[in-house]
Amino acid sequence: MSDGIPCVRVPPTAGERTRTMLAEQGLIDTLYEIDTTEDYLYIPVVDSTAVPDQFDIVTHVVNTRDVPTSPADKLGFDPSYERLGEIIIIDEDNHEKAREVAKAIVESDIPVKTVLNRDSKVSGPHRTREWEVLAGEETETCHREYGYTFRLDIESVYFSPRLATERHRVITQVDAHDHVIDMFAGVGPFAVPMAARGADVVAAELNENAVEYLSINAEQNDVDDNFTIVSGDVRTLPDSYTDWADRLIMNLPHSADEFLETAIRLAGDECMIHYYDIQHEDTLYQPGIEAIRSAAEPNYKLTVETRHEVRSYAPHEYNICLDVRLQRR
């Protein structure tokens, strides 16, 4: 039994709904049992600061759960991996070690259908990569992120579960009736939740496989009414979207700068651009800022509201984001 850990306290009538929501966000502390009293359910959480504000957080004594078998129990070390629905992704250069890790994952209590090892870097216009299948064979899955579900085939589309926190940061800035254009929408991890918040969203995507999943994900998350899918290059968006956007998502590191002229055409009188880039640690932000300024001035005043490192990309290189507000002069 614990000495008292952070728990979400809810009435029993809201218990299953709350448990499901917290589980989808990866917030339930599975080392402890959910406790039930006559008046409340106490659901242990791993990070009380990440729990949505509508929930009541209390410290409560709960019983410890029988610890499931983990890959570390099999290996003697804790391997690094990512979960994508029922697919586990590892990144291991040593072939024998990769197979050892995959075997330990399959033999653990982790629910998994397929274990994949990254076999190449992201490349090409569709930002896909090669995969080594270490266990199982299914590469299509349904991934849950902050209460939304995304169906995808990791072999034919780009999707990174590592970016969930960054996507959530941007998504929560969107208001109902905002005009949003996701210029490189993929299967919809930015666009679908933004539409669910009430924004009018245009999702442009070049990869035909991703477009199919984008349509599926819009439907299964009930955002069809205010959601427009454009199959093809965002630069071909019709003139009806000129001066239309209140917010632009430019998540195409390495080459987003090539689309800035289009972004400026699409931007309304006031527009927030979320611009993603990959740069060396010595010049993290300045190349992106200068590229946006060159495209936007003199028609717009430019204000950099946020600049931050999203994640490490390679030795001395980082995936960064610039939140830049444009105001027409």
What does this molecule look like?
It is a single chain. This protein has helices spanning 15-24, 71-75, 95-107, 164-171, 191-196, 208-220, 260-266, 286-296; strands at residues 5-10, 35-36, 41-44, 56-60, 82-84, 87-90, 114-118, 131-135, 140-145, 148-153, 179-182, 200-205, 227-231, 245-250, 267-280, 300-314, 317-328. The chain is an alpha/beta fold and 329 residues long. It folds into 3 domains: 5-60, Alpha-Beta Plaits (2-Layer Sandwich), CATH 3.30.70.2580; 71-138, 2-Layer Sandwich (GMP Synthetase, Chain A, domain 3); 161-328, Rossmann fold (3-Layer(aba) Sandwich), CATH 3.40.50. The protein has a 7-stranded mixed beta sheet.
Fold topology:
Layout (H helix, E strand, L loop, with lengths): L4 E6 L4 H10 L10 E2 L4 E4 L11 E5 L10 H5 L6 E3 L2 E4 L4 H13 L6 E5 L12 E5 L4 E6 L2 E6 L10 H8 L7 E4 L8 H6 L3 E6 L2 H13 L6 E5 L13 E6 L9 H7 E14 L5 H11 L3 E15 L2 E12 L1
Parallel strand pairs: 6-7, 11-12, 11-14, 12-13, 14-15
Antiparallel strand pairs: 1-3, 1-4, 2-3, 5-6, 7-8, 9-10, 15-17, 16-17
Which strand-content bin applies to the residues? 25-35%
CATH architecture group name of the largest domain: 3-Layer(aba) Sandwich
Count of folded domains: 3
Report the end-to-end length measured between terminal Cα atoms.
63 Å
Instruction: Compute the number of strand runs.
Output: 17
User: Which fold name corresponds to the CATH topology of the largest domain?
Assistant: Rossmann fold
Please tally the helical runs, counting DSSP H or I stretches of 4 or more residues. 8
